[in-house]
Amino acid sequence: MEEGKKIVLFDGVCNLCNSSIQFVIKHDTEDVFRYAALQSEIGQQLTSERNIDTSNVDSIILIDPGVAYYTKSDAALEIGSLLKGYRTLSKFFKFFPLGFRNVIYDFVARNRYKWYGKQDACMIPTPELKAKFLD
Questions:
Q1: What is this structure's pTM?
Q2: Which whole number is the average pLDDT over 56-85?
Q3: Residue 21: inside a domain, yes or no?
Q4: Cα 105 to Cα 79: distance, rounded to the nearest angstrom
Q5: Which domain holds residue 53?
């Protein structure tokens, strides 16, 4: 793992999650993030090391190695705060109470397959993006 990189774990079969990761990659102009599917071996290892119950958190996790990890709306807003052009928006939404943000987050997460669909297998990154994904 490269030093100073943050790890985004995501649901690799969720179309919404895959689209969100593509959006983050496009706007990650400072090359802050590395990515792995929650279903991957490395994703399972990273969640297990942190005792994260993926039956409760199954859509997005942000890991800042050696510092902290973030789940649900905190993860989404922390990611946004590190993307140019989205920092102010993330700061605005952090003013809302965590419980309120997570109710909305959980509602979308529960319905994401119904609304956006699901793939049969995890996304395979293009050769250009392969270096951004953990094995």
A1: 0.89
A2: 91
A3: yes
A4: 15
A5: 6-129
